[in-house]
Amino acid sequence: MTLPTPSAPHLPQPGELLRLMAVHAHPDDESSKGAATMARYVNEGVEVLVVTCTGGERGDILNPALLDNHAVLADLPAVRRAEMATAVEILGVQHAWLGFPDSGLPEADENGVKPDLPEGCFAVLPLEEASEPLVRLVREFRPHVITTYDENGGYPHPDHIRTHEISMRAFEAAGDPDQFPGTRDPWQPSKLYYHLTFHKLRLVALHDACLDEGVESPFADWLAGWEDKPGDAERLTTKVHCSNWFATRDAALKAHATQVDPDGRWFTVSLDSQSRVWPTEDYQLARSLVTDSTLADPAGGYEDDLFAGLRVTAASVTS
Questions:
Q1: Is residue 63 part of a domain?
Q2: What is the pLDDT of residues 256-281, one digit of tens each?
Q3: N or C: which end of the chain has fewer CB within 10 A?
Q4: How confident is the model at residue 8 (pLDDT cuts 50, 70, 90)?
Q5: Are 237 and 285 in contact (CB under 8 A)?
Q6: What pairs with residue 24 in β-bridges?
Q7: DSSP conformation class of 17
Q8: 190 and 9 in contact (C-beta within 8 Å)?
Q9: What is the rounded distance in angstroms from the CA atom of residue 34 to the CA atom of residue 86?
Q10: Which InterPro entries does the record associate with it (predicted)?
């Protein structure tokens, strides 16, 4: 796919609030990827909008305590929307649904053949059709920074991969008045990041923290089967310190009660240990239209702020 060349970015003007848009595939993804970052920025006065592409209606119930809950089973989509509303309130963010049908995660049969995705679901829609609502929302909210998933979706769920695709399409096209006419005035974001939630350095740190605490590490098998890929180490460009909001992140994640076991592995490592061994949420800077001359010199070789290079004129938001 050949993407259009993006327009010049709309840099923050003096006194203008910074704006962050986080594009996610399903309800609960926003709480497991970048939630503490968002809570930190909300606390600083940044406007944050979470965009959820699907309703997650084809997801499974992953909390053993709710597997036989008749109220949940009777209307899982409504339950997931209510869970999302609670998480949004906890994080203090704004929220928008794109309204696409969840594609589900098809499992291969005994011969390794996966069934076709459901007709009309998010992942099989034409890219332009799937991208248009996000382009409209970018032009309406006018984010300076967008976060999304990498080309593999973070993991290869069809909806995550399609979320990556429409995010890239929107970033490249939203500033071009000839693209997607009739979807409000053009707006060009300045930067786009990929979430790097579970990369090897962080997993090793959390694994070692478990051993130090004398608890069984849920990451041992994961690390034992880890395959290093060329370029993986270079993906980590940005480490946002947000440990003061790890508790907020966990509360938002637990609000998605159908999807999260509160006694599960995500909560094995204590917050104190997490704050000590890995106090950041991590990202890959995938696109930047901010000139090198305006970028702050990153400490330790990493950016420490998604808005690096954008704060010089946005005097109302502190770093």
A1: yes
A2: 999 999 988 889 999 999 999 999 99
A3: N
A4: confident
A5: yes
A6: 52
A7: P
A8: yes
A9: 17
A10: GlcNAc_PI_deacetylase-related (IPR003737), LmbE-like_dom_sf (IPR024078), Mca (IPR017811)
